Amino acid sequence: MDIERLNKILAVFEGEGGLISILQRVQEEFGYLPEDALFSIADFLKLPPSQVFSVATFYDHFYLTRRGDHLISVCQGTACHVLGARDILETAENCLGIKTGQTTPDYKYSLERVACLGSCALAPVVLVDDEIHSRMTVRKVKKLLTEDLDDTESQT
């Protein structure tokens, strides 16, 4: 963790508190909430570390481990489920070589299941970063992840 980057973030919140706002900003900067940062935030806000950890672990949008550079979310809402979302998620796991909730060893991808992405008319849906891929099938998700993986590999 880069302490200078963390201190710049904390300086913005000087005298204002706002634990959740600080946690959001730190996660935005680092991609997750490093343990050292949580202790520094507790110190900064004069709170017990247990309180900071409690808030960070209560909300499921905070991550305590490093996430991948790209987030792949597979919708499991009713419309998506009925149209094969379970198979799509399983295919994504196989293509990436990880289970749901995990990150690839090279930190390029994280895979998650989500309850609903709010795109039921386009079901089943896969979200890659901020891009929605609609009417997905097992074949389409294989192609999407294989091409994306190939493109990423050729850029490195």
Fraction of helical residues: 40-55%
Task: Using the CA coordinates, give the radius of gyration.
Answer: 18 Å
Question: Can you tell me the CATH architecture of the largest domain?
Answer: 3-Layer(aba) Sandwich
Succession of helices and strands: HHHHEHHEEEH
Q: Report, as a whole number of angstroms, the end-to-end distance.
A: 24 Å
- What general form does the structure show? elongated
Unreliable stretches: none
Q: What can you see in these coordinates?
A:
The chain has seven helices and four strands, in the order H-H-H-H-E-H-H-E-E-E-H. By secondary structure, it is an alpha+beta fold. The protein folds into two domains: 3-58, no CATH class; 70-155, Glutaredoxin, CATH 3.40.30.10. Strands 2-1-3-4 form a four-stranded mixed sheet, with helices on one face. Helix 3 packs across helix 4. The longest helix has 18 residues, at 138-155. It is elongated. The two termini are 24 Å apart.
